[in-house]
Amino acid sequence: MNKTHDKIRMRKIYFTTGPTELNPEIKSFIAEAIENDICSINHRSVEFVDICKDTVKSLKALLNIPDNYHVFFLASATECMDKIITNCVETSSLHFVNGAFAERFYKIALELNKKAQNIEIPYGESFKFKKLKLKEAPELICITHNETSTGVTIDSNEIYKLKKGFPETLIAVDIVTSVPYYNLNFSKFDCAFFSVQKGFGLPPGLAILIVNDKCIEKVQYLKNNKINIGSYHNFISLYENSLKNQTTETPNTLGIFLLGKVCEYLINYNIELVRQETEVKSEMIYNFFEMSDLGTPFIRNVKDRSKTVIVIDLNEKQNEIIKLLEENGIIVSTGYRNYKNTQIRIANFPQHKTEDVKRMLEILSTVK
Amino acid sequence: MNKTHDKIRMRKIYFTTGPTELNPEIKSFIAEAIENDICSINHRSVEFVDICKDTVKSLKALLNIPDNYHVFFLASATECMDKIITNCVETSSLHFVNGAFAERFYKIALELNKKAQNIEIPYGESFKFKKLKLKEAPELICITHNETSTGVTIDSNEIYKLKKGFPETLIAVDIVTSVPYYNLNFSKFDCAFFSVQKGFGLPPGLAILIVNDKCIEKVQYLKNNKINIGSYHNFISLYENSLKNQTTETPNTLGIFLLGKVCEYLINYNIELVRQETEVKSEMIYNFFEMSDLGTPFIRNVKDRSKTVIVIDLNEKQNEIIKLLEENGIIVSTGYRNYKNTQIRIANFPQHKTEDVKRMLEILSTVK
Q1: Does A40 contact B14 at a Cβ distance shorter than 8 Å?
Q2: Contact between residue A81 and residue A107 where contact means Cβ atoms under 8 Å apart
Q3: Residue B230 has what DSSP assignment?
Q4: Do B16 and A251 make contact, defined as CB atoms within 8 angstroms?
Q5: What is the Cβ-side half-sphere exposure of residue B271, based on CA atoms within 13 angstroms?
């Protein structure tokens, strides 16, 4: 068999929830980075400051992040969770747990010796905060907007209500698989974070933490009161460096550069168009499984269904379906934890093409 | 003027101390990574486990790291310092400070509320530990083997003596710009760390922390005694994942892959040859400045001179020399702190070619 042909046939499409399919231009962006010595420049140089400035500017433009929010570069969403707890909590945090990643946030708070509380609902359900009553306002409320483990999304308007009910509380939102599709009003919460290997289609190893001045005031208060805010990546050091468009340590310069390029790419492509396409693709996938005997969407309540992480109950057919897709070069994620062998999770990010979604569904429609 | 010609003329060579010149094969290694979907694979997949295993194996072979030492992937040397203090110190650490990076290690310990002590010597001097007497053995001794800020190296045999003198103390060694040139006996200390954008010529954003079982026992002791060992990247989580050839979080997969490729490259090239070449290049540079009126090596004691970070006093000529080199496409680092405007620092890593060193010295020899 012809080798080239073999290679083309074997080209894989990753519908995994992240790491996932790369932005189609990543290869040329990396070539540009190497051509321009981006990986060799000093992180205190004018060249680096310019890259950092450009990336922050493009990201803020793309996601409509207010000017008075600060952008920090970390290594992973898990690191962001740790740093938020360490830098925004003296004693107590409250966690709304609707899946494995919300639970991780909660467990990190416990590991950091905070009095963390959790309000937990079963996998597959979502939260409404309108009638939320608490004995005491917590210092920090942590919410997972789009649960990558279950495919549940929380209506952003529900999140926005929290600030009204608890004006003194800091609100932290995990938006790991939310952006850039979900158009969020950042002024309605105090900090948020995502990693770049999801909806931005970058190589993994970089996470973005976005915080407002209220978080900076809180860490300053903790420091003044001799509460341990850590050393590496404490918010004071991150903040002071961000004001200079720099980082505390020698950072993942390539990742920062690539993120800026992908943001520009999405702005030029037209983010509204990206959002429309995401909705079309998501409808195609959900509709297929609504109509098919193959499986059913895990999330029963249509309004709670994530547009970017689509979870399907396949039960005993799961393994067969995963294999069939893989034979056709299509990779999806398995379910999480208890659902590892019965569900699949299909990512629907900007870099996932409509034609590839169609192809996936065509392949699935051949199953008897 | 011909555009291509223009581009060739403008190709820069980075003799900076890191980030610096990339390994000459990085571009093709990245292409290989993208071709093989390295940036899209899941970090719990067999594919990732294989990459992780290969990289650790090649790194251990290249640097002669004993089997019973564990390799952790972090984001930066600064993070390594923080994690070593957090996970290996209950109350006290002792820091031998002979430059800015040793000082950073010390200051991180203070920021983490440890009773850190420092023994400080002037920039440009080195340590001998033979006659070291201390009232009390500290829990942890921190040493910077090769000070990137001053170009001073500590004779590794001096470091090896510490274990004899303080058998119960953990010894942590900053080898950020030491490896792969310096052939260290890892069994003579308990942990060590470096970042990949120095002597391995990788893009920045990945650091390697190497620890033995004594460090793991220590963190276990701290945990059992309710001492805060942090959550993210605590040694227990890093260790447990490393046993499975995995990482706690979705890591910098590309960096881990590239490090493995560069280690293989250096093994195939022959690491002994790399070391000989490093010595030849280092002698060329030191000899040039010994003979020249242009400047003088900062480190007076020849034995204390680093082979990989060469610091030259240029005094009032510094700015002119940096500009001259830059006009010829050669980038060097400035001096550090007080020496920012009077010194240059020249990196001499495996990826720095003899012919480029010659060219740099030829250009410098034209200065009257």
Answers
A1: yes
A2: no
A3: -
A4: no
A5: 19
CB A96 within 8 A of CB A127: yes
* CA B47, chain centre distance (Å): 28
- Which chain B residues are Cβ-neighbours of A18 within 8 angstroms? 250
* Nearest residue to A259 (alpha-carbon basis) of A200, A302, A213, A219: A200
CB crowding B105-129: b at 16 or more within 10 Å, else e: bbbbbbbbebebebeeeebbebbeb
Tell me the domains of chain B and their CATH numbers. 3-21+270-365 (3.90.1150.10), 26-267 (3.40.640.10)
What does the pLDDT average to over A245-264?
Answer: 97
Record: contact B12-A77, CB cut-off 8 A? no
Cβ B307 vs Cβ B153: under 8 Å = yes
By C-alpha distance, the chain B residue nearest A86 is B230
CB within 8 Å: A39 and B204? yes
Average pLDDT of every residue of chain B: 96
In this prediction, residue B52 carries a pLDDT of 98
CA distance B43 to chain A (A): 8
As a whole number of angstroms, the distance between CA B290 and CA B285 comes to 9
Handedness of CA A40, A46, A47, A49 (dihedral sign): positive
Cα A83 from chain centroid (whole Å): 16
Q: Which tokens sit at B77? A: 């040397």
Burial of B214 (0-12, 13-18, 19+ CB in 10 A): middle
Q: Beta strand B191-195 with B115-120: parallel, antiparallel or unpaired?
A: unpaired
Q: Is the pLDDT of residue B167 over 60?
A: yes
pLDDT in tens, B38-92: 999 999 999 999 999 999 999 999 999 999 999 999 999 999 999 999 999 999 9
Least CB–CB distance from B78: residue in A82, A203, A232: A232
Please count the residue pairs, one from chain A and one from chain B, whose beta carbons lie less than 8 angstroms apart: 164
Q: What are the start-end ranges of the E strands in chain A?
A: 13-15, 70-74, 92-97, 115-120, 140-144, 146-147, 152-153, 170-174, 191-195, 207-211, 296-297, 309-313, 330-334, 343-347
C-beta atoms of A254 and B203 within 8 A: yes
Predicted structure pTM score: 0.97
Q: How many angstroms away from the CA of B151 is the closest CA of chain A?
A: 18
ipTM attached to this prediction:
0.96
Enumerate the H helices of B178-252 as residue ranges: 213-224, 235-243
B231 and A195: CB-CB below 8 Å? no
pLDDT of residue A30: 97
- Backbone phi, then psi, for B164, in 5-degree steps? -70, -45
* C-alpha–C-alpha distance, residues B200 and B266, integer Å: 9
**B3, pLDDT greater than 60:** no
Mutation target vs A (from B110, B250, B334; most A CBs, 10 A cutoff)? B250
Cβ contact (<8 Å) for A19 and B27? no
Task: Give the nearest chain B residue to A195 (CA atoms).
Answer: B250
Which of B317, B107, B202, B310 is CA-nearest to residue A250? B202
Looking at residue A368, its pLDDT comes to 80
**Residues of chain A contacting B85 with CB distance shorter than 8 Å:** 231
Instruction: Note the Cα A216 to chain centre separation in Å.
Output: 23
pLDDT of B8 strictly over 70: no
Cα dihedral A309, A310, A315, A318 in deg (nearest 10): -80
